[in-house]
Design a protein that fits this description.
53% helix, mainly alpha, 2 domains, two-stranded antiparallel ribbon
Length: 130
């Protein structure tokens, strides 16, 4: 079962963070069709946010056709976002972990790593590489 985390200092609305975490889980194959998401009550206990915030996130995911709420039962994944490249994730993750270790040795903190990745990705898109 997915465990949500909400960063209250990120500037991103908590419901949006939950939506993005579910999408990531679907892209990475951590969530599969038929999997049950934590109940609203469980998420509230997990991350100490308002139940309406969780409901809003689940409604958005439902409108996108990613999950389905079943009255009295819970919310279930109805489709995945994982593509055929999912098999390559393990090798890519290992390479990324090695790169992160190198970035840490070079003295980069989380914000610097985020900035480097974001600008590199943006540049790659502009150059037609990504």
């Amino acid at each position: 079962m997915i465990e949500f985390r909400v960063d209250t200092t990120s500037g991103v609305a908590p419901y949006r963070q939950i939506v993005e975490q579910v999408r990531q889980g679907l892209r990475l194959g951590l969530l599969h069709v038929g999997d049950q998401l934590p109940t609203v009550k469980e998420v509230v206990a997990m991350v100490a946010i308002n139940p309406n915030t969780v409901s809003k996130a689940y409604r958005e995911l439902e409108m996108e056709g990613l999950v389905e709420g079943r009255a009295g039962v819970g919310t279930f994944v109805t489709r995945t976002l994982a593509g055929p490249s999912l098999a390559a994730h393990g090798e890519l993750r290992r390479a990324l972990l090695a790169w992160l270790a190198s970035a840490r040795r070079a003295g980069l903190d989380d914000a610097s790593i985020d900035a480097l990745v974001e600008t590199t990705l943006r540049d790659a898109r502009q150059d037609g590489v990504a």
